[in-house]
Write a sequence for this structure.
């Protein structure tokens, strides 16, 4: 993960080195060499994804001009603030590592789960979650990824009931996810409280351009509000459909979207949210090289 970037681009190598130093650990070694089970551990996976995104942006920064807004899905919101120079990548990596640790701890203390619901409108998923929730056991929409793709989160029994209710309402599939907690749900409340302290201590500047927040799908232009909404994000749903619709309005007709980081999942979701969107994904060294040559 990211090794090809570090080998081809000194700017990427510098980002990985700075994050290793900030974390006091060889995260880049785990990214480049594994083993996979160590890389996918929450405390490593979250800063690794951020490091990959930050490395790509460090390479293409001068070729991406006229940015009007940024957004990131879940922990990707921290990467968005890195692109907007509100956070340095080493500081952001420390924050997301702390975020991962807190989420893991909250999941250990109150085990939860998540499931992806495919082929059902969001309003029907919301109704199923309300129907399935009880006083001591709840299920909520956690990631509203596309008009017909929503991830639900909560107590295992409530998520199971909500999944069955979604199937009765016509969902094509309900897929249990292999996660260590009920992320983006009220079960992450203890993690949110501690993350607020970490964010308050972090060096955070006003973003150079607006960042669209997951929790509200509104633009953020001030550091204090960014801190609050990053904390809120742990217990609130990722309103990705609304975020991308807002981004399309901000960008206007002919706007270009650039996805940075590993994979091309967000580009695929964008095309379902904003049909005909002009989007490119930059994750591998080859993709970045083609982009740089064409810019």
């Amino acid at each position: 993960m990211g090794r090809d970037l570090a080998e081809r681009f000194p700017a990427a190598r510098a980002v990985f080195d700075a994050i290793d130093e900030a974390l006091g650990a060889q995260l880049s070694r785990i990214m480049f060499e594994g083993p996979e089970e160590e890389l996918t551990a929450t405390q490593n996976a979250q800063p690794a994804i951020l490091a990959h995104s930050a490395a790509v942006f460090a390479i293409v920064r001068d070729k991406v001009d006229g940015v009007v807004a940024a957004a990131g899905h879940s922990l990707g919101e921290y990467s968005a603030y890195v692109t907007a120079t509100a956070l340095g990548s080493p500081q952001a990596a420390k924050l997301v590592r702390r975020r991962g640790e807190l989420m893991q701890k909250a999941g250990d203390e109150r085990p939860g789960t998540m499931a992806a619901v495919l082929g059902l409108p969001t309003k029907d998923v919301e109704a199923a979650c309300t129907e399935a929730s009880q006083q001591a056991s709840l299920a909520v929409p956690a990631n509203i990824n596309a008009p017909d793709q929503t991830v639900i989160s909560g107590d295992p029994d409530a998520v199971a009931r909500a999944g069955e209710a979604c199937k009765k309402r016509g969902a094509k599939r309900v897929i249990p996810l292999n996660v260590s907690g009920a992320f983006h749900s009220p079960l992450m409340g203890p993690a949110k409280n501690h993350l607020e302290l970490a964010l308050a201590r972090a060096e955070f500047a006003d973003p150079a351009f607006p960042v669209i927040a997951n929790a509200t799908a509104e633009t953020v232009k001030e550091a204090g509000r960014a801190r609050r909404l990053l904390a809120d994000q742990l217990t609130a749903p990722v309103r990705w459909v609304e975020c991308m619709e807002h981004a399309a309005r901000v960008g206007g007709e002919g706007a270009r979207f650039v996805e940075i980081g590993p994979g091309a999942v967000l580009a695929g979701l964008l095309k379902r949210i904003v049909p005909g969107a002009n989007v490119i994904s930059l994750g591998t060294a080859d993709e970045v090289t083609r982009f740089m040559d064409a810019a």
